[in-house]
Amino acid sequence: MAHQHPNQHSNQHKDQKQNSGLHSPISTEVLNSLVHKHFGDHVVVKKFGLLQGGLFNTTYRIQLEHAPITDIILRLAPERVQYPMTEKSGKHIERDPLFSFERTMMAAEPIIYEHYRVAGIPAPEVLACDDSAQDVPRTYMFMAFIPSVQLDHASIEEKDKNHLYTQLGMYTAKMHRIEGASFGWPQADGTIRGSEHWSEVLLAIAEETSRKAAQIGYMPGVGEEIMAIFEQNKALFDQIKQPVLVHNDLWAANVLVHGKQGEMSIAAVIDGDRSMFADREYEAILNTDSDAFHAGYGRPLDPSPEGQARRHAYRLLSSYFNAYVHQHQVDQPEDGRIFEERTLDLLEKWKSGQFR
Fold first, then answer.
1. Whole-Å CA distances, 154 to 11, 149, 251
2. pLDDT digits (tens, 9 = 90+) for 97-153
3. What is the pTM of this model?
4. Is residue 286 part of a domain?
5. CB 330, CB 56: distance < 8 Å
6. Full DSSP string of 307-334
């Protein structure tokens, strides 16, 4: 599931001061040791800086000397902490703030970008990815720095923006032609953790979110209602037979662009770690009202009542997930309240059959 902002065409949360407990800087000594492990002892760290904006991973830009690539990015996933089970009212309570898929997603990111490259989608260059926890208790990745701005940067003129959104639609269509053997989350070894049935993956997401919310008394009863929707409508979701790759966090801030005005193009689609094999219409950006994007995508949404119902259920599940995440995982309560209100509204509309 994606960590989305309430307005997917805004990058507000990219500019907010970091206050997520998941985001944890490392010492200069550890940073140097990781660089030397992967690039050699002769390489010198000229300077580095912690990049602000992420609520989940910790990201550094590093300038090197005596290395083939001298401008690199280091991203570190949240720390691998063993959270003991605690007792509350006779029940075992899990305290791990992360969802199960979040524990493995960065390690699978090189696989995602290889899919992109084969399909002709511009992707970051992964220089190294380490999931061993030998040097630091977290997965980390070195990538080549890409000179660029985000697609929602204020300097981009409307004409360029229309062209870029058309291009993004074309790349999204290419992504949605990448087929998987089953539904679920790619793993570092190339397998997929999930199910042959789309309904089972959706229900698993709903169950885990509901369980975490219930353990802290968040939105009581809502998780059970959402779980029931996916439990009672398995046949609706299992009409989707072919899993395809969806980015699952595709919005302007995760699209890097470069070039001068009038000649801009997409440099890379980034932050693909939340990707999964799913129904193509699970991709939230398909809800955009951008004519340019849809012109590039070149494929209409399923207009049938079943298609509308599925998309509504996806929005409901995503909103519920994001309400919990923003309130209790990354400490963004204002966004959390927006998602909470949206969840309740979508739930009521589901009950009344208002799927448009």
1. 11, 10, 15
2. 678 888 889 999 999 999 999 999 999 999 999 999 899 999 999 999 999 999 999
3. 0.90
4. yes
5. yes
6. HHHHHHHHHHHHHHHHHHIIIIIS--HH
Tokens of 165: 């959104």
The CATH number of the domain where 107 resides is what?
A: 3.90.1200.10
Whether residue 2 is contained in a domain is answered as no
Enter the tokens of residue 324: 């919990």
pLDDT, position 24: 83
DSSP secondary structure of 246-277: E-SS-SGGGEEEESSTTS-EEEEE--GGG-EE
203's enclosing H/E stretch is helix 198-215
Please identify which residue in the block is written with the tokens 């589901």. Answer: 350
- Tokens at residue 236, please? 């609706």
Residue 286, phi then psi, degrees to nearest 5: -65, -15
Q: Rounded to whole angstroms, how far apart are CA atoms 106 and 102?
A: 8
Nearest to 105 by CA among 199, 26, 14, 184: 184
Strand 276-278 with 265-269, pairing: unpaired
Place of tokens 């059959």: 353
Structural domain boundaries, residue 137: 12-352
Number of domains in the chain: 1
Residues 245-258 have a mean pLDDT of 96
